[in-house]
Design brief:
This protein is α+β, with helices and mostly antiparallel strands. It has 2 domains: about 270 residues, Immunoglobulin-like (Sandwich); about 110 residues, no CATH class. About 30% of the residues lie in helices and about 25% in strands. Strands 5-10-3-2-12-15-14 form a 7-stranded mixed beta sheet. Strands 4-1-11-16-13 form a 5-stranded mixed beta sheet, with no helix packed on it. Helix 1 packs across helix 3 and helix 1 packs antiparallel against helix 5.
Length: about 425
């Protein structure tokens, strides 16, 4: 069964601009990977010839800073390419045309001859020709090579790429949310059914442009391996705190809460937005809500139409930290794993898990422990109280549940964070 915070994810387009030489196309090898590896190896060799004049022996960035008066970042990038152990992994570090020329001019003043300097320039021309032939722009080319490199891109590199996307889309969409949380609590009922409660948090959501639209998420559910419409009635955990159809946990929300308005969407869906919201951190909103679905079938045991549960948080707006918390009895499921899947083009809610397009994001699920102490989340201090309130209102003892958490910084716009639980066969 899939249980998902859902919305219609927008498509994001990225473009770059670069002007490589146009007279070297004939020198571009037909095989991309072999050609790029050869070009990067050649560039590294030529750079090492220059460095031999500047600093005999393998240099450190601070050595180039002192010897050539270059910025430490440019010095580091040159050395990453010159001494790369794996050529393709060096591609993102190749300096731009202006940066490389600064390095070469400084090296020339330090004694490097014109012949070795022109060797680097010729290698750079060949490399820029490859960029144009295979991608058209440097940013796209680097992304292509990251997927070919061995070892694969590191968690640090992936985070840096996501952070850059967060910054650009924050400007374009005009909104930011510091933390988005989707917590699911699964409680077996008898031998066949489960009750399922969700706690959703939007922590410090704010406008950064006056056109920005702040929206709340919703949860729907269906069979994982047999996608289609299947909705159970969602009941508010705090019925007296419902406002405009939103099952608020008012004690843990911004006070006073800005006015909510309902906006009709295609397919008889309704989206809730905040109206009359000012710009900036001073007017940021925190909202927690909670609801429960009773007597769900197909979420307890493996069957022909349902082999796993999937709790999904769709990233529709720029988010600083995305969190999925899964609270289950210790014996529930046979394994929990984290994924990031694409939500662009075709909604994962209409696909089986075998059809999902998994994105590179280094997502993993961590077992946090048992009971409410496991709920602590430094970026969202109100979360622990909101979860505790829901456990208490539902009459479920939190000490009997284990928490499994997926936490990802700067999740990709147009993706879904997923915690997938393999269901056991009966008996």
């Amino acid at each position: 069964m899939i249980l998902k915070n859902t919305w219609n994810a927008p498509k994001t387009l990225y473009a770059g601009l670069m002007r490589p030489p146009t007279d070297l196309a004939a020198a571009v090898p037909a095989d991309m990977q072999a050609g790029v590896e050869h070009a990067l190896l050649d560039l590294g060799t030529e750079l090492r010839r220059v460095l031999a004049f500047v600093h005999p022996g393998e240099a450190a960035p601070r050595d180039l800073e002192r010897a050539l008066g270059l910025h430490k970042t440019l010095s580091w990038r040159v050395l990453q390419v010159a001494y790369a152990r794996e050529p393709l992994a060096a591609a993102p570090h190749v300096p731009g045309e202006e940066g490389m020329e600064k390095f070469l001019l400084a090296a020339g003043k330090a004694g490097a001859g014109r012949g070795v300097l022109d060797g680097v320039r010729a290698s750079m021309d060949r490399y820029r020709a490859l960029v144009k032939a295979h991608a058209g722009d440097r940013a796209s080319f680097d992304v292509m090579l990251m997927s070919l490199a061995t070892p694969a891109e590191t968690a640090v590199e992936l985070k840096a790429a996501r952070r850059a996307g967060y910054r650009s889309t924050s400007y374009a969409w005009g909104v930011q949310t510091a933390v988005r949380i989707l917590a699911g609590i699964i409680t077996p009922v008898g031998d066949e059914l489960v009750d399922f409660a969700t706690v959703r948090g939007h922590v410090r959501a704010r406008r950064v442009r006056k056109e920005g639209v702040l929206r709340l998420s919703r949860t729907i559910e269906h069979d994982t391996d047999s996608p289609g419409g299947r909705r159970a009635t969602a009941l508010p955990i705090a019925p007296e705190e419902v406002e405009g159809g939103v099952p608020l946990l008012r004690e843990f929300c911004t006070q006073p809460l800005p006015r909510l308005e309902a906006v009709a969407l295609p397919g008889k869906n309704v989206e809730y937005r905040f109206a009359d919201q000012a710009l900036g951190e001073g007017s940021a909103i925190t909202v927690f809500s909670g609801e429960v679905r009773r007597g769900l079938s197909g979420a307890r045991w493996r069957s022909g139409t349902n082999t796993s549960n999937a709790l999904m948080l769709t990233v529709r707006d720029p988010i600083g930290v995305g969190v999925i918390d899964l609270w289950v009895p210790p014996e529930f499921g046979v394994g929990h794993r984290g994924l990031v899947v694409s939500a662009i083009g075709v909604d994962p809610l209409t696909q089986t898990p075998a059809q999902w397009h998994v994105l590179p994001a280094s997502a993993s699920v961590e077992r946090m422990g048992r009971g409410l102490p496991a709920a602590r989340l430094g970026e969202a201090p109100g979360y622990e109280g909101a979860v505790a309130s829901c456990f208490e209102r539902l009459g479920w003892g939190a000490e009997g549940y284990e928490l499994h958490r997926l936490r990802l910084e700067y999740p990709i716009l147009g993706s879904c964070l997923v915690v997938q639980t393999e269901l056991p066969a009966r008996g």
